[in-house]
Write a structure and sequence with these properties.
Blueprint lengths: L1 H12 L1 E4 L3 H10 L21 H7 L15 H27 L4 H15 L4 E5 L6 H8 L32 H31 L4 H12 L9 E5 L10 E5 L12 E2 L2 E2 H19 L8 H28 L3 H11 L2 H17 L3 H32 L3 E2 L2 H18 L1 H9 L1 E9 L8 E9 L2 H36 L6 E4 L16 H24 L2 H6 L4 H11 L3 H12 L3 H29 L10 H17 L4 E2 L1 H20 L7
Parallel strand pairs: 1-10
Antiparallel strand pairs: 2-3, 2-4, 5-6, 7-11, 8-9
């Protein structure tokens, strides 16, 4: 019976995954390995024929007539009219008048007049390129290569060809007056319109859902405005019949596509691409405007904190790319070295600044951020994934044995981290200040404030002979337990994560791996992102002081929410995506693995750093941190006991997390702040 139970348990936890190629199979397998970063996005280009029609439309060019799909008067199209349409139309009218004023540019004046009506409301209209008799030979060289449109995720930023019709050789067969009309157009009219469409393109791209408008502007500046005026035909969609000698070059039926959150450029999500210029702005303002003449410290701190999000994404994708293309040893080293680089960079820079200024507040902020990461990853991330996944799936199951291993490590790590704190409570001397006699009797009751346990009494004997050796012992034992956990889950008991990869060697489904980032490219991006992360963390700690001193919000609350959870936003997004695909095991492992790394990897490194660079950081936490962490771990183990969950259990985890946030919000600031 015991053997049958073991066989049944093995069948239950076995997971079958499908991968397009060997690199993707390696990445999927790494997702289930303890200590490896969980990454949802693909590290290789997916086969185009396997993509859905919705995704294919995102990468297609605006030269396809898709047929009428209802009324063109939609909220998105009206938004285009209010944001861009009216002033683009006015600008084209002004450029048209300027072209008519030059006389020789009258053909382009008529073109701009027609385009003014088109860009006021381009929906339901198409722009065609008409063939002029006798121009085939003159334009043959220009047509070659200009019509090749990039298709797929590796195409240009906004897709579509970049023609070269503006070159003089393209006008070899044109009349002299036609060549003369292009001079005022290229000198006066075209640059103004390029600037306008460039502005529209940037705004639309940053808004993501308006990327069709960005494609419209790019297609206009690189194709339509470089054609001879006689070859541009504007017609209504219902009246259009494409003649054999012409082709559609621009057709847009809607300004907003909500699915563009899936859009990627060379494998990088569009939101990470949009936030990347923010890093450059942050570094320039932070190091050039050192005296805060242009911006204030709170703005610089906010920019630095927001810049951490895209850098965390690039670090995560680089780690996943290197691990998927390398052997197990290289992947393990990269994950162990750079897996916690985001948090450690901020913590170490904060401790250095606090040590230089002699301010104990920075050490308390680091402790609060560590506790906030632990509590958030144990309660908030799994709870949010359960709630969102529960709306699509009534009940979700996960690998109970793998979750049990992580839960055991969490119990061990939390007990080890807070052991010096409990030791100090037992043997420390309670000292209180601001005591007042409430009974007016020398032997009566006293009301005291600012009580704390003194560890430095008797010339620091308690701290240096007892507490500090205990801290060093715990900091040695916790990484040792982490290594034992890695050996247990990856070597001796790897069957707990029984992953079977299918699809790589199935006839008809084999695809060669076209990686987005090669190993060397991923390594360079990883190092550059780490360097930028260090600079942003330095700026954040440099400009956090005004926020801590002037804000009415408790420093506890600020640290356990903003400082702790903002760097984990990419992990939260990955967890939600896994939960929506009914893969709650990875959603839970994301939060639990981060919590384990906080206790067993990050805190021992901070203690080791304190040995070589003395700071105010000691492994003695406040009572609030101890109680919040203990409650979180106990509740998490109770919820995960049966291996099944639903949105109600996720709501319970989130409600407890919000209750703890309320406690931190109303708690007084830590001592030293």
């Amino acid at each position: 019976q015991q053997h049958l139970d073991e066989v049944y348990e093995s069948c239950v936890v076995k997971t079958t995954l499908t991968a397009e190629n060997a690199v993707e199979a390696n990445k999927l397998s790494n997702n289930y390995k303890f200590g490896f970063k969980k990454w949802k996005s693909h590290v290789t280009a997916r086969p185009w024929e396997d993509r859905s029609e919705i995704v294919k439309e995102l990468y297609s060019d605006l030269n396809i007539i898709r047929g009428s799909s209802g009324s063109m008067v939609t909220c998105g199209n009206v938004l285009y009219l209010l944001l861009f349409g009216w002033w683009l139309s006015v600008l084209y009218v002004l450029v048209s008048a300027m072209m008519f004023f030059t006389i020789v540019g009258a053909p382009y004046g008529r073109l701009c007049w027609a385009l003014a009506g088109y860009f006021l409301w381009p929906f339901g209209k198409v722009i065609q390129e008409a063939e002029v008799p006798g121009s085939h030979k003159a334009l043959g060289a220009c047509e070659a290569g200009a019509e090749a449109s990039g298709t797929g995720e590796s195409s240009a930023l906004l897709s579509g060809p970049v023609p070269h019709r503006w070159r003089p050789r393209c006008w070899a067969g044109a009349a002299s007056w036609q060549r003369a009309s292009t001079v005022p157009w290229l000198c006066l009219g075209y640059p103004v319109l390029v600037l306008a469409h460039g502005l529209v393109c940037i705004i639309a791209w940053l808004l993501v859902v308006l990327i069709p408008v960005a494609k419209l502007s790019v297609r206009t500046t690189t194709h339509v405005l470089l054609l001879p005026p006689k070859r541009v035909l504007i017609r209504h969609l219902r009246m259009t019949e494409v003649p054999p000698e012409g082709q559609v070059i621009l057709c847009c039926d809607r300004a907003i596509n909500p699915y563009y959150y899936k859009y990627a450029v060379d494998g990088v999500n569009v939101f990470a691409v949009d936030l990347l210029p923010l890093v450059l702005v942050t570094l320039v303002l932070g190091y050039v405007d050192s005296h805060n003449r242009l911006t204030s410290s709170p703005i610089k701190f906010t920019l630095a904190l927001l810049s951490i999000m895209p850098l965390s994404y690039y670090i995560g994708m680089a780690i996943a790319s290197i691990s998927a293309q390398s052997n197990f040893a290289v992947g393990a080293v990269v994950n162990a070295t750079f897996g916690s680089i985001t948090e450690l960079t901020f913590y170490i820079t904060a401790l250095i600044k606090g040590s230089r200024e002699g301010n104990r507040c920075y050490a308390e902020i680091v402790k609060s951020a560590l506790t906030g990461t632990l509590v958030g990853c144990v309660l908030f991330i799994p709870g949010l994934c359960m709630v969102i996944g529960g709306f699509r799936h009534q009940e979700q199951e996960f690998n109970r044995r793998s979750a049990g291993v992580t839960s055991a490590l969490l119990f061990l790590s939390v007990g080890g981290v807070f052991a010096p704190t409990l030791f100090s409570k037992v043997y420390g001397k309670l000292i209180c200040g601001e005591c007042h006699n409430v009974t007016q009797n020398p032997l009566g009751h006293y009301l005291c404030h600012s009580c704390h346990f003194d560890l430095m009494g008797s010339n620091g004997t308690l701290f240096y002979r007892h507490v500090q050796p205990l801290v060093y012992t715990v900091s040695f034992l916790l990484p040792t337990a982490y290594l034992i956990g890695l050996f247990f889950t990856l070597k001796t008991h790897s069957h707990i994560y029984d992953i079977h990869i299918s699809g790589c060697h199935v006839p008809g489904h084999h695809h060669s791996a076209v990686v987005h980032w090669s190993r060397w490219r991923a390594l360079v991006i990883l190092l550059l992102s780490t360097l930028c992360m260090s600079a942003c963390a330095d700026l954040a700690t440099e400009h956090i002081s005004p926020i801590l001193t002037t804000s009415t919000i408790s420093q506890y609350f600020f640290a356990v929410t903003v400082l702790a959870m903002v760097p984990e936003l990419p992990e939260i997004v990955n967890g939600i995506q896994f939960a929506l695909q009914n893969n709650l095991s990875l959603s839970i492992e994301i939060g639990n693995c981060i919590a384990v790394q906080v206790c067993m990897f990050q805190i021992p490194i901070l203690v080791l750093f304190t040995i070589f660079y003395p700071t105010n950081f000691t492994l003695v936490f406040s009572d609030l941190h101890v109680y919040a962490s203990m409650l979180s771990v106990v509740l998490m183990n109770y919820i995960f006991m049966d291996g099944k969950c639903d949105y109600f259990q996720g709501m319970v985890l989130m409600m407890v997390y919000f209750i703890l946030l309320a406690v931190y919000f109303f708690a007084p600031s830590p001592s030293g702040c």
